Structures are given as C-alpha cells and as structure tokens.
Amino acid sequence: MPRLVVRRLLYAVVVLWLVSTLTFVILHVSPVPVERVLGGPLATAETFAQIRRNLGLDRPILVQYWRFLARLPRGDLGDSYVNGSPVTALIGDRLPTTLCLVSGAAVLWFAGGLVTGVACAARPRSVRDRTVTVFVLAGLSTPPFVMALALLYLFTTGLGAAGVHVFEAGPPLQENFLRRMVLPWFALAFLMMAAYSRLTRASMLDVLSEDYVRTARAKGLPERRVVRRHALRAALTPVVTQLGIDLGGLIGSTIVTEKVFGLQGVGQLVYQSIAAGDTPVIIGVTLLVTFSVTVANLLVDIGYAFLDPRLRHA
Amino acid sequence: MTAHAGLEARKPPADAADRAAAEPVRSRSPSRLAWERFRRDRTAVASLAVLMLITAFAALAPLWAHLTGHPYAATFPRTGLDAGGQPRGPGAGFPLGADQLGRDVLVRAAYGARISLTAGIGAAALASAAGTLAGTLAGFAGGALDTLLARLMDMVLALPYLLVAIMLATTVRVSSSAASLAMTILVIAFFSFAAYGRTIRGQVLSLKQSQFIEAARALGASDARIMAGEILPNLAAPITVLTSLLIPSSIVSEATLSFLGVGVRPPMPSWGSMLGEGGDAFRTAWWLLAVPGSLLLATTLAFNLLGDGVRNALDPRGERAAGGR
Q1: Closest approach of chain B CAs to the CA of A256, in angstroms?
Q2: If A258 and its partner were Cys, which of A94, A267, B254, B322 is the partner (CB 3.0–4.6 Å)?
Q3: Could you list the residue ranges that cross the membrane (chain A) (predicted)?
C-alpha cells in the first residue's frame, strides 16, 4: 500500500514536470506578443524592448526555463506579466468560485445520475427506463455551451421578469449565492448526469445478475432491499471511480460555463490569460489542473485498494 | 425495436424451418448479418436519414446562397437589420433570420454544417488511423516500443484537454479559415487518439493470446502478415464502433473551440462561432441561438444514435449501453 502511494506520487511528479515543460515549450515557440498587449497601440519599438527586458523575456530560452524550474519546488509560479501579482495569489482569488461551481454541479449530477440509473436498472426496458434513455441520449448529445446558452435565454428573455428570481449575473460569493449558481450548476451537470445515469445503469445491471443477488432474492428479501442494500454498494465502485477522475479534470473544462454565465473563476482567468499572452498564469493553471487530475487518480486508486483487498498487494 | 422483437432476434421465428425448406440455403457473411440487424433498427435508420438530410443541406450550401442572393460572408445592413440596428427575424428575405451584422443565418448555417461534418469526420478518421496504428504496434510489439507508446498515450490523457487545445489554437498562427480548420482538426485528433489507442492496445493484447494467431505463427507467417492479415480484420468491429462515437464528440469539440473564438476563424462560419460571435444578441434574437444550436444537437444526437445502432448490429449480444430500445 505505501509502495503504491510512493510510486504514484513519483509518477505524478514526472507527469507534472513533463506537462509544465510542454506548456512552456508551446508558449515559447509561438508566443502571443505580450509586449504588444501591454504596450498598447502607441508604444514604440523601444518600449517593447523595455517591457521584454523587465519581464526577463530577452534572456535565452534555456535561462528562462531554468528560472521557472528553480522556482517550482518552492511553490512559486512567478508573477503575472499583465498586472505583476503572484500567480498563486491570482489563482487563489479565483479558485473558490470554480470550486463552488464544480462541487455544486457534482452533487447534482451524481445524485441525479445515481437515482435515475438505479431506477432504470431495477426495471430494464420499462416505460420509465425508455423515458430516461431519451433524456440520457439528449444529455450526452448537448454540447455544454449550448445547454448553458439555452438556460440563459430561457431564464432571462424567455421568462422575462420571472426569470430574474432564478438567475442574476454577478459575483456569487458575496450575495444571492443560489440565484447566481443554480443555472451554472445545471448547465455543467446536465451532460455529466446523463453519463452517470448510463454508467450506473450498466454497472447495476451487471451486479444484479450476480449469484449473491440471486441468493438475496431466494432468501425472500424484498426487491427494494436487494437493490438498495445488496446491489447498490457493489455497483457504486466504478461510478465513484469515474467521479474521482471527472472532478479532477473538470476545473479545466469550466471555461465555457464560466464564460457564458460571467463567473470570474479559474476558467475565465486562464481564458483571458491565453488571449493576453500571460504565460506564467497559463502555466500555473495548467499545472493546477494536471495536479488535481493526478491527485484524483491517486485517491481513486487508494480507494480501490481499500474496497477490493485483492489490489492491496498488486 | 420492442423487447419482444429483441427476443425474436435471438430465437429463430417459428416458421423459419418451413422457409428454410422452401428457399435454397444461402450463406450469410458476418457483415451481411450485421447489415440485416442494422436495417431492422428503426432508430438507427432514422438517424442515418437525418444525417443524410444534414449532409444534403451542407452540400447544397452554394445553392442556398444563390437562391437568397446572400453569400455567407456578406453583410446586408439595410435589409438584414431594422431601423434600430437589430437583426431581422425569419421572414421573406431571410428565411431563418439575419445575425447582428445582417448576414443570412440560413446560408451561414449551411456552410457551418460543412465545417461541422468535415471537422467531425476528419478528426475522427485521423484519430482512428493514429490510434489504430499506435495501439496495434504497442500491443503487438511489446517491449520498449510498447512502454514508449503506452506512456505517450498516458501523457496525452493527463493533459488538460481544453486548456492545451486553446493554447495550441491561439499560439499557432494561421493565415486563413481553411488553415484554421485543419489546425482544429489536428488538435482534436491529437487529444482523441490516446484513449482510442489504449482501447485498441487492450484488444490487441488479448487477441495476441488467441489460438488462431498461434496457428498463423506455426505456419510461419511473418509479424507484418499476422498484424495485417489476422489482427486487423478482428479489430474491424471495435474500430467501427469507436470511430462512430468519436465523430459526435469531435463535432462538439470543434463547436466548443469555435465558440471560444479559437477554432475555425472568420470569415468561414461554424455553428460554434455563430453561437459565440453573437455575444448577447441571442437574448433578443432567438434564432441566433435556435438555428445553430438545434442543428448541432440534431447532428450529434443522430451520430450518437447511429453509433449505438452500429454497435448493436456488430455485437448482437452486447446490450445497447444506454439501454432500452
């Protein structure tokens, strides 16, 4: 068990190094000219050169790379080119919004997917199952940004004044939290809910054909109890695994939801930074996302080992 | 198909014996059997019909432009916008309305369909070719090559997809709409080939153990021959299924990148950029949201249903993953 953790952590360090190097290379081979963004339309060539000198961009790329690497172990991601604040502080400001968005949506989609998935698996091919299937396919086929735009339209123009009670744009963490977050949560959760419903249903159907489920039925347990107590636990394993993987990666894909609903989270931060050529911020967010994916994967693996004793010695 | 028909497909109908006696016995190849199963699947056939309609809509894009007299990139501020500068809704001059610059939404949607279909099919085909090659080589060769390819695929899977895609699309300079489309296809394919390759590698690893491979080896077949003649044909089913599912997800990826302004560049319209360029205009002009949005949804839904149908036809034992019908 400790060996697994150590090996995975070492692997994580290698992945983080590779990802940061790759990002560094992409951004330096063909950078957005940050001096033009900062200097404005009236700046002269001299100003451009001065800006580049101030940011250390006139040094050879290997020197820049070394400086970047040397700072990393201290948790220092450098300063933003655009406003000079430390990247960690910038990300820290934006992270709560994104975490609220992701965790609220995750609760929604996990609960929704689980309930519908179990309900369908309990009665395969019933009217209920088919109705849910239609929604699942629609959910899986709706691009998240189309869902977000449609919800926004419905609750702003479509419902007129009544919609204002449901959605209001603005910073969510200060006031009217629910009114600002409910629509983004639904927009983000819709596709995932469909995927989780599908996954739960398949996993549940697998488990329901196991021998021990037949035993439970044979000894006369009510079907409800068989489904909820005996089958559900075993069926949850792959679903929880998927949740771990998705939660880690989701911070990167909230870009679209944040953009449509005007939420100032990490997604918006990195989207704006890419346009402005603010390399340190871009690398910082990329590292954060990769790190959370790796940690989520590790937690899932450890969780697996606890659930399934056979994996502990593997 | 109903549950009843599903049962029938497994058991021969009662009069099968009579018919067999009357008709001469004819052999049916696996692909013929699959085609017959597919034809009976009404949902899949309907999806195919919808996709053909969309393809025709896309192919005839110049005709729509000719009939309306509105080239896709031309703006018509006088006829397309009202006195207040707001886009006109669907009507005589503009069948599906005009956008905020006074361009024809119908014509742009038709050209956008070309982009979506090209990007979806192009990226899926590219990812499928690369994934099959990498997966087969890794699974078959084993050793150092396997480790290298498997690690490479793991790396790609560990990258934050949308972030790196936006980065690549922003930093690589493109000169034209066509170049930006090619770039978008490459980016999407790069990020989908890894998961694809991993699945293929798994399939190859299990195929490698089977007896017919051993038999071929005993007969003195070379590695290349076994790969091309024994392994590849057995991968046909997973390749078809995986590729059919990659198409809708690639279409969504292209639309998302274009929506964010880093996919297909103007003047060429894409459904994603049509949704993105309008900004908030769709709040007063519903057709700016409804037309590209519903086309996008219809296309991905049809491809997903078609993919399900293909999977069922190729593997009659496996239950349709979404269940039900």
Answers
A1: 8
A2: A267
A3: 9-29, 101-122, 134-157, 177-196, 234-256, 281-307
